[in-house]
């Protein structure tokens, strides 16, 4: 299945896997082309979330320690509400796009690992960071802030690795 996007065209990826005899013909035909738009969009989203997570890890979360008790609730509630509107749409597009790329390339394809990384980030977000933010919504707690900073390294490293991996996939595909 080939998708032609005006101004972008299509490109073939995963040439080694396509040429192998391990794939059935229908699957290899299905994964034959992934558009440049899908590749570039994935790279842009990966780079954006990489930048956001490093800023949060090195500036925002450590800065929580310096907020006064009297300003805590207002700041934290405004921060979580604001960040939700920035990060959640990006995470949703990232999840959908990486799921789509796995459907297009198959579970043995190059895009399975980035999709598993995205799933891991979602698990970390909703089972580690969100509960910690819920605790912090009740009031400032330096122990929870410390745990939030430590636990957020999971997402920071995962998004960093994903950006590196996706960068190599895009570079290889565009050569």
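-> sequence recovered:
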């Amino acid at each position: 299945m080939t998708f032609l996007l005006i101004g972008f065209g299509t490109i073939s990826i995963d040439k080694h896997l396509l040429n192998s005899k391990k794939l059935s013909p229908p699957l290899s035909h299905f994964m034959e082309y992934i558009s440049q738009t899908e590749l570039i969009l994935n790279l842009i989203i990966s780079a954006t979330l990489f930048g956001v997570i490093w800023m949060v890890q090195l500036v925002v979360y450590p800065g929580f320690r310096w907020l006064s008790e009297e300003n805590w609730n207002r700041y934290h509630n405004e921060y979580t509400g604001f960040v939700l509107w920035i990060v959640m749409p990006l995470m949703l597009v990232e999840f959908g796009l990486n799921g789509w790329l796995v459907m297009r390339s198959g579970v043995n394809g190059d895009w399975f690992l980035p999709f598993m990384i995205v799933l891991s980030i979602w698990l970390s977000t909703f089972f580690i960071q969100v509960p910690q933010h819920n605790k912090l919504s009740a009031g400032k707690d330096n122990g929870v802030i410390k745990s939030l900073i430590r636990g957020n390294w999971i997402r920071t490293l995962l998004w960093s690795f994903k950006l590196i991996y996706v960068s190599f996939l895009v570079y290889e595909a565009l050569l």
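Residues 41-174 form one domain.
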